[in-house]
Amino acid sequence: MSRTLPHPTREQIELPLVLDCLSDPTRLAIVYQLAQQERVSSELCCGDFNGLAGKSNLTYHFAKLRDCGLMQTRVAGTNRFMRLRREDLEARFPGLLDAVLKSAAKDAERLQLVAECDVVETD
Amino acid sequence: MSRTLPHPTREQIELPLVLDCLSDPTRLAIVYQLAQQERVSSELCCGDFNGLAGKSNLTYHFAKLRDCGLMQTRVAGTNRFMRLRREDLEARFPGLLDAVLKSAAKDAERLQLVAECDVVETD
DNA sequence: TCGATAGTTAAATAAACATTGAACATAAGG
DNA sequence: CCTTATGTTCAATGTTTATTTAACTATCGA
Predict the structure, then answer these.
(1) What pTM did the predictor assign?
(2) Which residues of chain B have pLDDT under 50?
(3) Cβ separation of A20 and B15 shorter than 8 Å?
(4) Nearest residue on chain B to A17, judged by CA atoms?
């Protein structure tokens, strides 16, 4: 019934929680993917991450990312659209997100962040 | 008997491990304190962090910081001197450590990083 | 050689974490 | 209305984590 989800305010965003969130490979991949697609569209929905983990596991990671202030979730019909809270993060921790994203990009292979580009399903 | 401790090479430093290390408040405080004192002397020994946690707990955190490549430990007599692996981190993840340290500095109070400056013991 | 100092190791514990599967809820579309 | 597609919730699992206490090792200096 709840049309909106709880998010921390900008000021409530905490450094250790953000770092902890980014330290998990699955969540780092989510954030990375979100950042990659940003110039195309600033939002992605849950299903776009199905390659990274099972559905219910993703729900768990999305909640962590939302709770720590890394992303914003918008409910629309049966979909939840997410976007990075770039502005808030930049205001709170200048340069941090970019540094993490650049570092992740450098290690994309090692971290297995390389988007599978919607590989054709072989059913 | 081991005069030297094992450290990862520069190339072996992994982003998720580094972020995870920095996400713990105690370890973030250690790194912050290490960075603060850097212009005075690049090294500090275990005892300099006694305010942050118990001795054996510190040993645990030091090991994590060493294992992930954030700091270097040098054994000298009964002391172990630590320093940040700034160069290696900058080479691997440009701008990351500085961004974290600046973010931490902004939140120093909230994170209780404010060095107690060897407050006089009130016994 | 003795005692103090610096730090490690080991074992125990409680809490937090990531992952899974099954059941559920909600909305869109025929 | 019924079905399908999206995504959530809940409980169970096994793992990792941070912390504490106590016993230990090793070095320095008197």
Answers:
(1) 0.92
(2) 1, 117-123
(3) no
(4) B23
Q: What is the 3-state secondary structure (H, E, C) of chain B?
A: CCCCCCCCCHHHCCHHHHHHHHCCHHHHHHHHHHHHHHHCCCCEEHHHHCCCCCHHHHHHHHHHHHHCCCEEEEEECCEEEEEECHHHHHHHCCCHHHHHHHHHHHCCCCCCCCCCCCCCCCC
- In chain A, residues with a C-beta closer than 8 Å to the C-beta of B25 are 16
Q: Tell if the CB–CB gap between A94 and B94 is shorter than 8 Å.
A: no
**Interface with B, mutate which of A98, A103, A113 (most B CBs under 10 A):** A103
* Measured CA B117 to C1' D24 distance, in angstroms: 32
pLDDT single digits (tens) A82-122:
999 999 999 999 999 999 999 999 999 999 987 554 443 33
